[in-house]
From TrEMBL:
Keywords: Amino-acid biosynthesis, ATP-binding, Cytoplasm, Kinase, Nucleotide-binding, Proline biosynthesis, Transferase. It comes from Alteromonas salexigens. Its main location: cytoplasm. Catalyzes the transfer of a phosphate group to glutamate to form L-glutamate 5-phosphate. Substrate binds at S52, D135, N147. This is Glutamate 5-kinase.
């Protein structure tokens, strides 16, 4: 088999590989991953590494009874991040760079583009970007929550050809292989639906990582809708990486969409979080699909949450059906004011002067959800 025809690949490595015993970083499982990265680069493939592990790497520096404290977990991340970066740096004879992100960096369009430009520039200078969520400063409102989904967002931002997600098992099974001897692994997944999510089960039970198989499926769905080949492989065995380098599939391969989403639509749907909601009448769905500018205050029956001009909002029917995510050209305060006016003529004249409520060029259809 020949080396895969990748120009750019993102590989996600979890905490269990970085610090399997929560006693600091270990290179035991990382050597084969580092060798994979070296061989990819030698074959002209650019690599972006998304590496969890800062909290697990710093855990041994704190008392056990303190570790449930949020402030202590942030301190663990701060202490462990330097050790994790140092461990990776020792495994390479080329420079690496640290990029720490929160979801706020990705859901804001301008910052999202800035992240892409930084990754591109590092790769153009043959520097390995090593990306992690900034657990030291992130909050529930700002965090992605797991590096599986972060890796898919990074792969989309970086316009990668492939995303490789390392797991503790060989791939996606039709049932939990730790509990069922007759579990069968799926080598190829052509589309992701509820039956695929049902196979994923719950979160990881080992207490080391923050994700499980479900977050990996979520990440795969984000990536393949952007046209990115996605693999879930066993990161604990060197064979997985050797097979990939030989052009073979060592785990589960998720086939990318034949017609990937447009880049701005993909970002709106899979990366940007809705900061509020606009509820419209049920019979408005058809017109919204055809022309975003047809959304006027006369169709709005409610506004929920607080949002500013330029924020992403969710537009849904009054029966709860999600229609679109879109960029709002109005603040929630102003939109509430206009929608409550008794005079429809006032609202029409105002919108004619200020433009549509949502931007047609930044709209992602959600009606199939």
């Amino acid at each position: 088999m020949s080396f895969p025809n990748w120009e750019r690949v993102v590989i996600k490595v979890g905490s269990a590989l970085i610090a399997p015993n929560k006693q600091g970083c270990s290179s035991h499982y990382l050597l084969s991953i580092a060798q994979f990265i070296v061989r990819c680069r030698a074959n002209g493939t650019q690599v972006v590494l998304v590496s969890s592990g800062s909290v697990a790497a710093g855990a041994h520096l704190f008392d056990e009874e303190e570790k449930t404290n949020i402030a202590v977990k942030k301190a663990m991340a701060a202490a462990g991040q330097t050790e994790m970066m140092s461990t990776w740096d020792r495994l390479f004879d080329f420079p690496s760079a640290q990029i720490l992100l929160t979801h706020a960096d990705l859901r804001d369009r301008e910052r999202y583009v800035s992240v892409r430009e930084t990754i591109d520039t590092l790769l153009d200078h043959e520097i390995l970007p090593i990306i992690n969520e900034n657990d030291t400063v992130t909050t529930d409102k700002l965090k992605v929550g797991d590096n599986d989904n972060l890796s898919a967002m990074v792969a989309s931002a970086a316009e990668a050809d492939a995303l490789i997600i390392c797991s503790d098992i060989d791939g996606l099974y039709n049932k939990n292989p730790h509990e069922h001897d007759d579990a069968e692994m799926l080598k190829e997944v052509n589309s992701i639906d509820e039956s695929i999510y049902a196979m994923a089960g719950g979160a990881a039970a080992d207490g080391v990582g923050t994700g499980g198989m479900r977050t990996k499926i979520e990440a795969a769905e984000k990536a393949i809708s952007h046209g990115i080949d996605t693999y879930i492989i066993n990161g604990f065995t060197e064979l997985s990486f050797n097979m990939l380098l030989d052009g073979k599939n060592p785990g589960t391969h998720f086939q990318p969409y034949d017609k990937p989403m447009q880049e701005n639509v993909h970002w709106m749907r899979h990366t940007s979080n809705a900061q509020g909601e606009v509820i419209v009448e049920s019979d408005f769905a058809a017109s919204l699909e055809n022309d975003a500018e047809q959304l006027t205050s006369s169709e709005i029956i409610g506004v929920r949450g607080e949002f500013s001009v330029g924020d992403t909002i969710l537009v849904r029917k009054d029966d709860g059906t999600k229609l679109v995510k879109a960029k709002s050209n109005y603040s929630s305060c102003l939109l509430n004011f206009i929608a409550k006016q008794d005079s429809e003529e006032f609202a029409t004249e105002f919108e004619e002067k200020t433009g549509p409520i949502i931007s047609e060029q930044h709209i992602a259809n959600l009606e199939k959800e």
